[in-house]
């Protein structure tokens, strides 16, 4: 998996013209699309806070560390709220709650059944890998204010991804079967979620194919770090198209 340091270097080493071709942030069509995309990231950070707090109840000895991760997510939520305010856009929160409903429902079901592996897969791997890949794509086409906010958020998200990876790696012998089953149920949701907002992402100059490619690279790198072999990773990745 790309480290935080390499990700930062890659951003800094982009040529000056890498940010050319930015969208017009003042158009009604941009603001309309942004109202949904901005709501998704705000709701995503709120969901992440709730999820980390829930995971802490399942592993009380790590509750303090998980609370720290959750509080980072609340700071991200406030930052992204300010991004919308800066553009004069009101986030479409009802849309965002519906958007996250399938993953939210699956996480809540796993939490009630105390399926810690599934909870970690959904929040600390799937959602974090998707957020990191989407934020890295967005940074290249964001308005200056949002770009600065998002760059700061990405640094924290790598910590969250690494936390989930380390727990799953340490427990892989006993959690692999559940991990594979949870992947089958939840990985396809990421693609359907992305399909749902493809047009809005395009309005922000974010290509759906690039977003999916970046996500799959980050996700498979994460599975590799956890300790799965190439064959297992390939089989798990197929769940996105089956």
What does this structure look like?
The chain is an all-alpha fold. The protein has a single domain (26-240), classed as Ferritin (Up-down Bundle), CATH 1.20.1260. The chain has helices at residues 4-12, 28-58, 63-86, 93-112, 116-139, 144-170, 172-196, 198-203, 208-226, 230-237. Helix 5 packs across helix 9 (208-226). The two termini are 25 Å apart.
Give a brief description:
By secondary structure, the protein is mainly α. The chain contains ten helices and no strands.
Number of domains: 1
CATH superfamily heading: Ferritin, core subunit, four-helix bundle
Helical element count?
10
SSE order, as H and E? HHHHHHHHHH
CATH C-level class: Mainly Alpha
Helix content: over 70%
Number of strands: 0
**Beta-strand residue percentage:** under 5%
Query: Major beta sheet, specifics?
Result: none
- Mean pLDDT metric: 89
Catalogue the unreliable spans.
1-19
The CATH architecture would be: Up-down Bundle
Overall, the morphology is globular
How large is the radius of gyration?
17 Å
N-to-C span: 25 Å
Say what the CATH topology is. Answer: Ferritin
Classify the secondary structure makeup into a structural class.
mainly alpha
